[in-house]
Each structure stands twice: as structure tokens, then as C-alpha cells.
Amino acid sequence: MSVKKKSKAWEYFDLDQDGTQASCRLCPVKLAYKNSTGSMRNHLQSKHLDVNLDGTENSQTPKQARITAFTSPTTRRRCDPGRSEKIHRLITEMTAIDMLPLSFVEGKGFNKLLNFLEPEYTVAGRKLITTKLEVAHANMTAVIKAKMAKAEYVAITSDGWTATTTESYMTITGHCIVEGEMVSRVLQTCAMEERHTAANLAEHLRTSTSKWGLEGKVIACVHDNAANMVLANETILDWKSVPCFAHTLQLAVHNGLKANAMTRLTGACSRLMGHFHHSTVATNALKKKQAQLFPDGENHHKLIQSCKTRWNSVCDMLARLHEQRWAVTAVLSDRTVTKLSEARTLEMTDDNWQTIETMLPVLESLKTATTTLCSEEYISLSMVFPITMRLLDRYLVISADDSTVVCDFKKTVATSLRKRMEPDNTERAGRAALLASALDPRHKHLRFLPLDVQAAVKQQLVIHYDGLAATVHVGEDGGACEEASGMSLEPGPSRKRKKTTLSAFFGEDYAEGEPSDDELERYWADPPLPLTEDPLMWWSGKERSFPKVYMLAMRFLCVPATSVPAERVFSAAGLIVSRLRSRLLPKHVDMLISLNKNAWSE
């Protein structure tokens, strides 16, 4: 229907498709339209007093009218109880998502903003928001408990940290496999007011797992290599004690970085980074050189300073410096920017640049190993020894064209890593990481291990298999049955995986298998799974073929390779337990961290 819109009222109304109704742009009202704008004009004059339809110089544009009308007392939206409750809930979520102090709801700026946006809303006080957070935390806890109740086995990770208020905390996360998916949740952050003895640590771990209904389900705890944690787990709690591989690898790499030549190189790079970070003149000059060297806009990146506690940052620093070599060199050569005396102490020699170039592939392989094993979404413990042996047999092997610095670094890291991991020790073939590899269809061939260790690992798996036979029987449909089992037998939804990095790391020649009658032997004989495939999806489809081995897989594959999931809480926790939040009770620290990481982390 075609309508000639000559009246000024049409600036504030839209006609619907069939031409029978006009919708006000300033409020939700819809008016019947019958070839006349009279009702529209009456509506504007009675409800939107700031709208001028006479066309005088004081008349407003529709946009201006819309803004004024929104804030006008005559058109103010009522904040009914339902809307008020919704705003309460959004403020509660905002508190947890953005790690805000509970006192922010009492801030003048926040109250002024809400008064403008929602004048009739009574701002929730600190007490009300605390209550809302407690209710949300209780609901979230119930949901996580119900999910974890479906798992037969649970692994936990734990790590300690100190807040800016000098209070000591321990964060515990839980990991299990439910319906073909890895599930990882922050369980508890508890204040550690007493000494960190093995007995006290064990008591905190026991209390936390009991609170979550995990008694009898915890099969392993992943932690740093502290002796008190090993004692707490192995001796007191009788859980498998799994050292964090990220910590182990970090210790080995730090040994390599402490060599004199590497210390001099990283020291020179750090000084150079520090110069650019502390000099606005040098930084601006670098940006100009980047624009000249990279006119397409690529590689206009800031330089990266390394951090002593994170060896990965050394890799990042060297990679960025290598990328920006010519831009940095140009700035140091420009006497209008860098004094000669400064340039002499900062400039890198050709040998330095050559060493950086040859060191990068080694450091990047170590970084890939770390980041691959820090995933919470996919199984990781089964990759610890395949990755360790790949590092030792390929990436840390000295080649003819390696410089002395690179040779020393590779040799030191390889020696330290081999000593810590003991891949040739048949007496330690029962370690959780080795059993997980044997139960991962991608790595079950164990070809990365010496033959005698392969045999020892398989023998350990037979012992676990025989022990499981007493508690698991095969149902009529061929599936595994266990009294407390609540696991679904249906495959979980497919997921995207980081396939290319893993495949590139190991190479393509990585699979072959063997034959026999019993279930375990049939599992060995089944062809290995390609590295690009998801082992949990594979197991979801093989539960009826290998029911007992399936139960063993669920037991060991749920264990993460690192305690990084617990460490990731530190950054969030640091925000929560800051000066503004120093009066928070430990239970509220736990509540805010749990909500941030579990309920509203996406």
C-alpha cells in the first residue's frame, strides 16, 4: 500500500507492511491507521511533549526527540518487580564475570549511571548482591555435582598461590569424562592458614572432594613436584601422585637457560627490550621504521620482554626480536634517536642474531610441547611420554650445524629431561602417564619406548585389567556394567581439534598394530587411531567391543598432564583478592572464583 507521507508526524512513525498500523518510534505503541495522521499527532502531543510538530526553529530532529523522550519523566518506563529482579541478576553476573569488588554497587559513578538509565530502579546493595551470588553459587554447585556424579572416575589438580594480601590459598580443580567429553571444573579455593604439611594438605584435599561427593572416585592428583604433595597423595590419601609435566619441562628448560652463553644472550636481548619499553622516543622511532619496512601493515608488532618465571616468554622475546631485527637495527643506527654510547651497549652482534635464529626452532618445539599438554578440553596425560621421547629423539638431538650455544642448550635440557622422566626405567612402568598412553588408541603401540619398557607397561596394564575383572562384568549387550556406573554409552558430539600442530610435531610415520583372543589382546591388535582423530570419540564407539579396557581408559584418560588448570585461576584470583577486596571472607573468594571460572566464564 503506497502512502504519501507529507505530515511531519511520519517522522516519528513507521507503517507496517499491510498499511493498517503505525508504530511509534519513541515508544512501543501501535496505532490503527485509516488514511489519516490525526491519531498519530494526538499521540505525540499527549505522550511525547518535547516533540514539536509545528516546524518552528525549535523543532527537534527525530533522533533528538527520541533521546529526550527516553529520559523525559512523562515517558519514563516503569521498573516493575520483574524488571528489577532481572537487573539484580545482571549486576550479580557482572560482579563475577568482570571480577568486581562487591563494594562497586555502592560506588557513586555506578549509581549515577543506573539512575540515568533506569530512574525507578532501586540499586541493589552489597548485602543483596552477596546473597544473589551465594544463591547462584549454590545452583552452580548442584549442576556440577550432578554432572560429575555421572563419571566413574575423577582426577584433580591442585596448586598453591599467595594473594597480594599475603594470604595463602590452594585451588582444586576436578576433571572427568562424561558422555564422551572431558569435563573440567574449579571445585574449591580454600585458605591455607596452617603450615603446608602433608597432613594438612591431605585434609584440605579430602574435605574438598568429600564436599563435592567424590569419595571413592578420585584416582589421581596432578601437582607440582613438591615433596609434601607427593606424600599427601601417595601415603595419606592413597591416590596416584602425578607430577605436573609443565613444571618438569620448565625445570629442564631453566637448566638449559642457565648456561653462561645463554644467560649472556638472553640478558642482551632483555636489555634491548627494556630500552624500547622505557624510551618513548625509541618506541616511536621503531613504529616509523616498521611503517617503512612493512608498508602493507604486517609485522607492526610491539617488542616482548621476557619474564623470569615463564620460560615460554624467552621464546616469545627471541621470536619477536628476530622478526623485528632490521627495524630494531635501523633505530639503533639512527644517531638522532639513539646515542652512540647507548647503541654500543645495545647492538647485537651477527653471532647473536645467528644464535637466535638457530635457537628458535628448538624453543618453539618445547613451547609446542607445553601448550599441547595444557589443554582442559582434550585428553593430555597420554601424550606426556610420546612428546617427551619426540623431544629427546628429534628436537633436542645435536646436529652438525648447531653452534656451541645451541649444542650446550640441547645437551643440558635433554640430560635434565631424561633424568626427570626416566623413560628407560622398567621399574616405573606403572606410572599413570605410561598407562594412559597404552590406553590412548593413537599411542597404544608404544613404539616411542624401548622394547623392554613397552613390555613392562603392557604387563602393568594386564595387572590393572585383572584387578578390574572382579568389579566389572559384561552385560548382555556387550557393554561394561559396574554397580556405581552412571556413564552414558552414547557418543558425545563431535568437536573440532587442534590436529595440524600435533601431526606436524610427531610426523606422519606413527602407527601399526598386533593380534589374539582375549579383550586386551584384541585391543592391541586393533589398528592405531590417526593422530588427527579424537580418542574419546573412538572409545565411545568401542565400549561394547572392549568393555573392561574401556573402563580402564576412562580411569586413566581423565587425568590431565599438568596442573595448569589450577594455575589459570591465579590471574582471576589475583583480581579478586586485591586491596579493594582485602576484607573478603575466604568463602567469598572461593565463591567468586568458582562462579567466574565455571558459571559465567564464556
TrEMBL record:
Q: Does the keyword DNA-binding apply?
A: yes
Q: Where is the BED-type domain?
A: 4-48
Location comes to: Nucleus
Q: Does the keyword Coiled coil apply?
A: no
The Gene Ontology biological process annotation of the record reads:
post-embryonic development
One GO term describing the cellular component:
nucleus
**Major subcellular location class:** nucleus
Keywords from the UniProt entry: DNA-binding, Metal-binding, Nucleus, Transcription, Transcription regulation, Zinc, Zinc-finger
Give the top-rank taxon of the lineage listed in the UniProt record for this protein: Eukaryota
Name listed for the protein in its UniProt record: Zinc finger BED domain-containing protein 1
Molecular functions per Gene Ontology? DNA binding; protein dimerization activity; zinc ion binding
Q: Which Pfam families match?
A: Dimer_Tnp_hAT (PF05699), zf-BED (PF02892)
